């Protein structure tokens, strides 16, 4: 199906609809503090990611401080933006509504972080602490919808998905140890607004780990299965967690019959830092028919081309990213971190996908580059055939 030409304001529900018509899951890149900045979002979008999240931005600071606004949220003025969801950390309805009003002209939607497990966030009733405050979360999303509507945006869910002024309001959650609490939480969030008689969130991202589960432990596929069968007919649901490659998901889905298109890379292979299972088929016990899409964080950092079907990072993605950082600058140390991630072993369970563009010693050398010129010279030397001349 043809995509609407005005990508800048494409409605996320339209993207879900396009993916569904293409008989596939929606592909999204996760909010990642520090990392999911514009150049990275542009890179993953170029390689098949449909919808990109910004890092979590603290709504209160964003509303009050011009420097916070300038440093936290960058958009492209040249060419279309990747469809972008701006994620906020907030615990006051008015703060989330005001911050959302500021970014609505430049984004496809806004999202509330109800999943950050870090103690600084939870002690301020932000992130995962909100999983214990379902009424507050509901008040926040309802007030945000009302504010966006007052500003002239259209927040009528599916009714507005073809509307260039349509915007989404969504949340990203973790699960509770007692899944009944998560079911209560989502039930509260989906109950129709008294004024509009429709659900207050456009879609939902579920990270099926509890606040206490380390990210090295596998996601709780059973919880995902229960939650999608309970709510998947009422609201589109994205999975965040353990999307390492497209052909190694720990569950099956009738709209995901993917076979990997390539296994690129060169150089030496070293064991992945991550604990992806080596025989994924042994773990596949669930079919998740009501899941609408995938969100990846760590695996996209290591391989921004993941959603184009590659199981490890190709050199051309490193180069594409480098080009974008020159036009959408970010602190040099951050550029180095990104390049180092991309040149490290991939995260797929198949040992063939764990090859790395640079070996450990080369990556240590990479980290000693002092500026962009040194970095370009270094990569020029390491990439077979040298870098393209566009840089
Ligand atoms: C470096 C990093 C930063 C993150 N920052 C955020 C964030 O700002 N907001 C959020 O909701 N989740 C954040 N997360 C969590 C991810 O979005 C995601 O839910 C989690 O990493 C599981 O996905 P994965 O297995 O694909 O990594 C972050 C994760 C990482 C690795």
UniProtKB/TrEMBL annotation:
Q: Low complexity bias located where?
A: 260-278
Needs which cofactor? FMN
Q: Which reaction does it catalyse?
A: a 5,6-dihydrouridine in mRNA + NAD(+) = a uridine in mRNA + NADH + H(+); a 5,6-dihydrouridine in mRNA + NADP(+) = a uridine in mRNA + NADPH + H(+)
| Keyword hit for Phosphoprotein | no
- Show the segment(s) annotated as Disordered: 260-279
Query: A biological process (GO) annotation for this entry?
Result: mRNA processing
Database matches in PROSITE patterns:
UPF0034
The alphabetical list of record keywords is: Flavoprotein, FMN, mRNA processing, Oxidoreductase, tRNA processing
| Gene Ontology molecular functions | flavin adenine dinucleotide binding; tRNA dihydrouridine synthase activity
Residue ranges occupied by any DUS-like FMN-binding domain in the UniProt entry: 30-248
Q: Does the keyword Oxidoreductase apply?
A: yes
| Function according to Swiss-Prot or TrEMBL | Catalyzes the synthesis of dihydrouridine, a modified base found in the D-loop of most tRNAs. Specifically modifies U47 in cytoplasmic tRNAs. Catalyzes the synthesis of dihydrouridine in some mRNAs, thereby affecting their translation.
Which protein is depicted? Answer: tRNA-dihydrouridine synthase
Gene source species: Triangularia setosa
